[in-house]
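Two folds, back to back.
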Amino acid sequence: MNEYEASLVIRSGAEQLSAASSDPRSEEGYAAVKANISVALERLAEALANFEASSRAPNRSIGWVQDLRRVADDLGE
């Protein structure tokens, strides 16, 4: 799987999560959902940082990486 294909999986998962959250069946598992989103955001930040490191114009999205990690940390608390 390449980066583009992986990004499609992420997008699809986000769309599924959005659809599921628009009609929540219960709060059961909410802590687990937050934990999973936290891990996903941390991995997205890591991927973005990797892309930036190999870019000809590094540091374009350093603020985004920091923001993603901050949100991941907040969700993980």
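---
second:
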Amino acid sequence: MVLSVSERTFTQEVLESPIPVLVNFEAPWCGLCRIIQPLLLQFKAQYGEEIKLVGVNADQNFKLSTTYKLKSLPTLLLIENGIVRHRLESFRGREDLRLALEEIKVSYSNSPKNYNSSKTADLGCRSA
């Protein structure tokens, strides 16, 4: 199950999280959002407690959608120590997402696992 986060709980659950958070901006009307859900759950299962997975309803959380300049849904943000480390958007399907998640996996498996270090730690992730 994915934790649902709102504007009210975003700071506590995401920005102040001691572990990296994969934020899935989605909407009930978004077909691709539903299609990728099993892949996201599989990704979360592989990482266990190392990465947190949360969902944000973009329609109900307009301030967050504006703050993170969403252009399309779904949009995934990997946020660590309050900083966007990776942004995934404009993918066309499961295969695009699978490849992007693999890239995140590779960058994290090559990085030290000290998540509570300084906010400027560079994990080698690239923004889209």
